[in-house]
Amino acid sequence: MTGPGPPSGVAAASRPGGRVELFWVGAGRGLFHATLNGGAWSAPEALGGVLASAPAVTAWDDEPMEVFAIFDDGALWDRYWDGTTWHPWESLGGDLEPGSTPAATSNGPDRLDVLARGRDGRTWHRWWNGSEWVPWQPAADQ
Questions:
Q1: Range of the domain at 102
Q2: Which of 39, 42, 98, 101 has its CA 20 to 30 A from that of 13?
Q3: Cα angle for residues 134, 125, 97 (degrees, 5° grid)
Q4: What is the pLDDT of residue 127?
Q5: Is the pLDDT score of 1 beyond 50?
Q6: How far apart are CA 141 and CA 81, in angstroms?
């Protein structure tokens, strides 16, 4: 699966029913996505953006999932799949190191965590608490 442009910065998430969601940076540093379902890959779809990092993705229920990337402005940006459609890119702010790769995880439908390296060399943490994004905080005393 190469899709448009040479792939780089690959991320994946497993889904119910044996599906795998694959994301990568392709042509023009845009984000691309394909799904492995029933042993066959879907056609790649362009999700836009101009990424300065590899993507990170987490699934947080049967259908919803969120993909994150750092853009040239040093902010973390995300797109959200609600089970029917992709929502537009939105900035989650931050003063992050372009080129570093964020990490994302979820432990249920009302909790998403994302971590990324700041321009200051520290690891920063932001999370969705079920109703809002909590402001950036240092991940640990570093």
A1: 8-108
A2: 98
A3: 120
A4: 96
A5: no
A6: 33
CATH number at residue 87: 2.40.128
pLDDT digits (tens, 9 = 90+) for 50-104: 999 999 999 987 789 999 999 999 999 999 999 999 999 999 999 999 989 999 9
Q: Is 34 exposed, middle or buried (0-12, 13-18, 19+ CB in 10 A)?
A: middle
115 in any annotated domain: no
- Domain count of the chain? 1
pTM (predicted TM-score): 0.92
Average pLDDT, the chain: 92
What size, in residues, is the chain?
A: 142
Closest CA to 113 of 69, 55, 52, 58: 58
In three-state secondary structure terms, 28 is: helix
Give yes or no for a contact between 31 and 79, defined as CB atoms under 8 angstroms apart. Answer: yes
Q: Does 122 reside within a domain? A: no
**DSSP 8-class letter at 135:** E
Tokens, residue 24: 């990568």
Q: Is position 49 within any domain?
A: yes
1 versus 51: which is more confidently predicted? 51
